[in-house]
Specification:
There is one protein chain. By secondary structure, the chain is an all-alpha fold. It has eleven helices and no strands. Helix 5 (62-74) runs parallel beside helix 7 (96-108), helix 7 runs antiparallel to helix 8 and helix 10 (150-161) crosses helix 11.
């Protein structure tokens, strides 16, 4: 079913997955695959239902919990998503995908401290892996700005400009820097 979905044969993929669920309704692998298929098709209520069912059978499934947290975020069940995100980060504190999801959920939950924490942990991991960090600096700049910390926001925005960004991202960062400098005044902006 997942292969059919990848081949853009979504209706057939759904039918095949439905048959699998009918034959194996209590199989955690089938439930997890069904949740993945639903998520790939942005069918969030179905993703949530199948991920919850898979978690009942295999409570330590990181994949099922990730899909559940994502589905809860996408359906605006933010506090529930935050709870699942916390569980995920306890299970896998150094997983980049989980840290990205935690940052998204924390932002949606207006918990900028948790968002910054997740992004800073992600930044350390990405630096160790020699990955591009400009996007993370961009998000950190935004989070620090939302929290009201101009110096930290400026520092991260300037770091973001040192690496590869899309032209749109670059212009957004430059506008944000200019905005912070205008609000901060010459003395505070110079002290970053």
């Amino acid at each position: 079913a997942l292969v059919l979905n990848a081949m853009s044969r979504q209706a057939e993929a759904r039918q095949m997955m439905q048959k699998s669920l009918e034959v194996f309704p209590e199989d955690s692998t089938v439930l997890l695959n069904s949740a993945m298929l639903a998520a790939s098709q942005k069918r969030w209520p179905q993703t949530q239902k199948n991920a919850e069912s898979a978690l009942k059978l295999t409570p330590d499934s990181v994949q099922a919990r990730y899909l559940l947290a994502l589905a809860l975020l996408e359906t605006n069940s933010i506090s529930q998503a935050a709870t699942e995100s916390t569980r995920l980060t306890r299970q896998r504190p150094l997983d980049p995908q989980i840290l990205k999801l935690q940052a998204r959920i924390s932002k949606a939950n207006n918990d900028f401290t948790a968002e910054i924490d997740a992004l800073e942990r992600l930044l350390v991991l990405e630096k160790k892996a020699n990955q591009a960090t400009s996007p993370i600096h961009l998000y950190l700049g935004q989070a620090w700005a939302r929290k009201g910390f101009a110096a930290q926001a400026l520092s991260n925005y300037e770091s973001a400009l040192q690496g590869p960004l899309t032209p749109l991202q670059k212009s957004e960062v430059q506008a944000a820097i200019q905005n912070i400098r205008q609000k901060s005044g010459p003395t505070e902006a110079a002290g970053h």
